[in-house]
Amino acid sequence: GAVVSQHPSRVICKSGTSVKIECRSLDFQATTMFWYRQFPKKSLMLMATSNEGSKATYEQGVEKDKFLINHASLTLSTLTVTSAHPEDSSFYICSALFPLAKNIQYFGAGTRLSVL
Amino acid sequence: AQSVTQLDSQVPVFEEAPVELRCNYSSSVSVYLFWYVQYPNQGLQLLLKYLSGSTLVKGINGFEAEFNKSQTSFHLRKPSVHISDTAEYFCAVSVSGTASKLTFGTGTRLQVTL
Fold first, then answer.
1. Which of B42, B49, B96 sits opposite A104 (nearest CB)?
2. Is the N or the C terminus of chain B less surrounded, counting Cβ atoms within 10 Å?
3. What are the angstrom distances between the C-alpha of B10 and each of B46, B100, B106, B108, B112?
């Protein structure tokens, strides 16, 4: 079964609103989680690394004020897309580092965001 | 910095035929290598990984890959594919010895037909 749960799987929102996406590690504690963005027929682009109890580390070119990441517990990281615009429409995927095998990332099922 | 090249964006193959999906990487340091599979509108599932040891790695669903350091390659193979193997396949690399981020290739679409 899935070891990482991502919710919601799909969300449609109006331009200007904010959307929160949750990523939960199931049955294990993940001090490090990652957020990716995937454009149609493209590879995954790492947006940020989320560390429990500290600020996220954003990749170059990713607006930290637009994509707010919170990793308040060892099993939950959230990504909030603030003031969403149509160009933010994409497939967002999270992953968690499995503590017993630190080089292995387990991925959530992804969230399809559509901004109207 | 590391980079991954998947030269084939699409690979069509008939069911029960063998397949090879190519992956080449570039890095100035030692790396770990991974293959992930993505089914439509889903996240990524780990197929197999190379961390160290034997260069021939076996994964789930009958897939295997061979790490070739001299050719900086990590090609994925399956001797006989099924319709259900139709998916997007991503090769990825991370710096060895650390819990570091993954760098992905652009993906290869494997299309299996009857």
1. B49
2. C
3. 20, 29, 11, 5, 11
Specify whether the CB–CB gap between B26 and B3 falls below 8 A: yes
Alpha-carbon distance B48 to A103, whole Å?
A: 12
H helical segments located in B2-110: none
Chain B residues touching A26 at Cβ < 8 A = none
Distance between CA atoms of residues B57 and B5, nearest Å: 20
* Closest listed residue to residue A13, CA positions, set A83, A110, A68: A83
Amino acid at A69: I
Q: How many angstroms separate the CA atoms of A109 and A8, rounded?
A: 10
For the segment A53-85, what is each residue's pLDDT rounded down to a tens digit? 888 999 999 999 999 999 888 899 999 999 999
Cα–Cα dist A53/A57, whole Å: 12
Please tell me the distance from the alpha carbon of residue A111 to that of residue A9, in angstroms, as a whole number. Answer: 4
